[in-house]
Specification:
This protein is an alpha/beta fold. It has one domain (about 10-220): Rossmann fold, CATH 3.40.50. The chain contains four helices and ten strands. Belongs to the AB hydrolase superfamily. AB hydrolase 2 family. Pfam families: Abhydrolase_2. InterPro entries: AB_hydrolase_fold (IPR029058), LYPA1-2/EST-like (IPR050565), PLipase/COase/thioEstase (IPR003140).
Length: about 220
């Protein structure tokens, strides 16, 4: 996988992560959350043309995926947990990521109380979990081919997300996370007051070029 040349791989704060500090004086952090079997290198393709706007951090998930799959997972796989991840399974990672962002922000003297996120697939589910648990800490969230995990909907009471902007991209032919589940997840967010920009395309479990361009605009504005 091609990695941007201006990124650095770090081991700090109990995490392995890749970063691209802003070319200007950074005022915000963008957190990249990879999907199942991904790693700290997986998400950089989504960051073209936005390096000057953010200090970007892409952590490696803390749990190894099965050896036959490779990569990493945001939840620990145990017998009986092979289905979609739940609030309970993702909440530990969500809480730990807030601490990571705080530590990284402090190291760069970034004082913004909020940060933004882009999450793909399982990483999108984690982003939805994190914003439900810590809504005051998040400004924008982009969920790409993701879903609202079971249990999170119980946290999404009316008004909880009224100050947060969402971007949601989904393929109508997604074979892993159905477009119906994506639309139901968007409804959960909107019922909690979120503003959701939805981009769909006739593709599978990936992000179309059109939605990719819309994501870049969403993050810039």
């Amino acid at each position: 996988m091609q990695i941007e040349t201006n990124t650095n791989l770090l081991d700090q704060f109990g995490w392995t992560f890749r970063v691209s500090p802003s070319l200007d004086d950074p005022s915000r952090v963008l957190l990249l959350l990879h999907g199942w079997t991904g790693d700290e290198n997986s998400m950089w393709t989504f960051t073209q043309n936005i390096f000057s706007s953010y200090s970007i951090i892409a952590p490696r998930a803390p749990y190894s995926a099965p050896p036959d799959k490779g990569g990493y997972s945001w939840r620990e796989l145990k017998p009986g947990t092979w289905g979609s991840p739940t609030l309970e399974e993702l909440s530990l990672a969500a809480d730990a990521l807030v601490s990571l962002v705080d530590d990284w922000s402090a190291s760069l003297s970034i004082t913004s109380p909020t940060f933004d996120m882009v999450g793909f697939s399982q990483g999108g589910a984690l982003a939805a979990t994190l914003v439900a648990l810590h809504p005051a800490r998040v400004g924008k969230v982009a969920v790409l081919s993701g879903f609202v995990p079971s249990g999170v909907e119980r946290l999404l009471h009316p008004g909880l997300l009224e100050d947060i902007r969402f971007f949601w991209a989904h393929g109508t032919k997604d074979e892993l996370i159905s477009i119906e589940r994506g639309r139901a997840s968007i409804e959960f967010l909107e019922n909690a007051g979120a503003e959701v920009q939805f981009c769909q395309a006739e593709i599978g479990h990936r992000v179309s070029k059109e939605c990719w361009r819309s994501l870049a605009t969403f993050l810039k504005n």
